[in-house]
Each structure stands twice: as structure tokens, then as C-alpha cells.
Amino acid sequence: MQDPDFDTLERCFQKVFPFLAPDAIPTCAHGDFPQWDSLAHATLLAHIGEEFGIEIDALDAFDGATSFASLLAVLRKRHAGRQ
Predict the structure, then answer these.
(1) Statement: residue 5 has pLDDT above 70
(2) Which of 9, 28, 57, 75 is most buried when burial is the number of CB atoms within 10 A of its CB?
(3) Measuring CA to CA, how many Å separate 9 from each of 20, 65, 69?
(4) Which of 72, 28, 83, 53 minimizes the C-alpha distance to 62?
């Protein structure tokens, strides 16, 4: 079964961290590699906002979400609240 949130988030990670192997993305976290600095995190959140149609101000909910898994959990929670 396809997971559109997973797939879209994976695309966001690929845009910001093109050097990551696709199988490494679901397990990556801030601190795993030096390229994930505060600027990369802000860029990643901007891509997430654009891809998911989330207002940038609403990205405050992503504060502390510093891994693929935690970002995905926030997105799923947001989508569950809309249904």
C-alpha cells in the first residue's frame, strides 16, 4: 500500500539531501551527518510546507521534529486532524 505522506516527505528529503541513499532517508535524523544544519533544516521545512500546502507559520508544530520519522509523525497527526 502506498503512503502518500511518506512518499512526499521522502521527496522533500531528496531535494535537500540529494546525497542520501533512498534507503537511508527513513532512518536519518539531525546529527547523522554535518550537512543537516539549521539552514538545511529550515530549507527542509520550507519544502515540506510547499509540498504539503502548509502555511509556513504553521510549521511551529515541527519544532523538535528532527528526524524523518518524527516529521512523518507530525504530518500524519496533522492529516488525521483534518479528516
Answers:
(1) yes
(2) 9
(3) 14, 13, 10
(4) 72
